[in-house]
Amino acid sequence: MKVAIPLAQGKLTLHFGHCEQFAIIDVNDETKEISGREDLTPPAHEPGVLPKWLHEQEANVIIAGGMGQRAQQLFTQNDIKVVVGASVAQPEELVSAYLQGTLETGSNICDH
After folding, report:
1. Is the pLDDT of residue 110 over 70?
2. CATH code for the domain of 34
3. How far apart are CA 26 and CA 35, in angstroms?
4. Is 17 inside any structural domain?
5. C-beta separation of 31 from 44 below 8 A
6. Contact 54, 72 (CB under 8 A)
7. How far apart are CA 14 and CA 18, in angstroms?
8. Between the CA atoms of 5, 17, 15 and 80, what dihedral angle is there, to the nearest 10 degrees?
9. Of 17, 22, 18, nearest to 2 (Cα)?
10. How far apart are CA 19 and CA 11, in angstroms?
11. Which pLDDT value is given to residue 18?
12. Which residues contact 86 (CB under 8 A, 6 or more apart)?
């Protein structure tokens, strides 16, 4: 499994479309433990570009603070599960909480 986290200054950014980088966190499917991380600079943000690009990076899940409905649909069409409403934190903390079923999510802070 690979989990994508949009970053600004090394932590989750609440607006994924304007992130500086994505942390791509590798997870061992058997042990459910983090096995690696790669930070990648995404292409320019245009509708539909990031879901396709993250699919090409083999991401299965994206954890975001907020995301518009159309973007969520595009991620789903690219076989990427969307988790929204996460708080700003280090990528590994978010993924660990997600894997343990303890990731706290609030409202989707994106209204478009």
Report:
1. no
2. 3.30.420.130
3. 5
4. yes
5. no
6. no
7. 9
8. -40
9. 22
10. 10
11. 78
12. 12, 63, 64, 65, 94, 103, 104, 105
Q: Which domain holds residue 25?
A: 2-81+89-100
Asked whether residue 9 is domain-assigned, the answer is yes
Q: Give the residue carrying structure tokens 């991401």.
A: 59
| Angle (nearest 5°) at CA 111 between 99 and 26 | 25
Give the total number of structural domains in the chain. Answer: 1
Kindly report whether the global pTM for this prediction surpasses the value 0.90.
Answer: yes
- The DSSP symbol for 87 reads P
Examine residue 18 and state whether it is found in any structural domain, yes or no: yes
Give the model's confidence band at 96: pLDDT under 50 very low, under 70 low, under 90 confident, else very high: very high
Give the mean pLDDT of 25-30: 93
